[in-house]
């Protein structure tokens, strides 16, 4: 074997090993992100009670803005990392929760609710976002705990084989494609809504500018003498 072949083999092994390590790290860290997402979202009543006790207006504003930034940032990071469930090669070759794509889709639906409605002022929107998050967490934690992490338990062997992506690849790919379709529909809805809002805003702005323009002088009509 030539030195170049050895170097190429070592490089490929490092790349493949690094990819496997990265995927394993992401999969291991996702439960913590899901837990933080739920805790921060469901902790809104506690934050509001704390704000009522805060006598300093500036401190209350800082506390509220910090909470909003952390909550939405963790939600976005969890959704971004959840994109590994839409990679067919990873889904087929790695032990992932089989309903992970649907859980990530529920995260996106919660984001859509937050982007299109005032979830912090509208109790109905807040409850709808909560339903999506709790449903997504259930779809993620149930196969993770009782299938992926319970592979050594003989009494859960059947459920573990059915709810793990690399042991039930046919169903896993179908669920992944269903999740992809849902993501595309949500993205299309957000794009159309943003385009409509931009056109409406531009039309209102052009209308205001037209009203502000001075009226053209009207030529005087000569009177007969």
Instruction: Provide the low-confidence segments as ranges.
Output: none
The total of beta strands comes to: 0
Please state the average pLDDT score: 84
The main sheet comes to:
none
Strand content: under 5%
Total number of domains:
1
Radius of gyration (CA) equals: 27 Å
Distance between the termini: 115 Å
The class by helix and strand makeup works out as: mainly alpha
| 3D shape | globular
Portion of residues within helices = over 70%
* Number of H/I helices: 8
Order of helices and strands: HHHHHHHH
What does the secondary structure layout of this molecule look like, with pairings?
Layout: H1 3-42, H2 44-53, H3 57-81, H4 88-93, H5 100-116, H6 123-148, H7 157-163, H8 169-212
Helix pairs in contact: 1-3, 1-6, 2-3, 3-5, 5-6, 5-8, 6-7
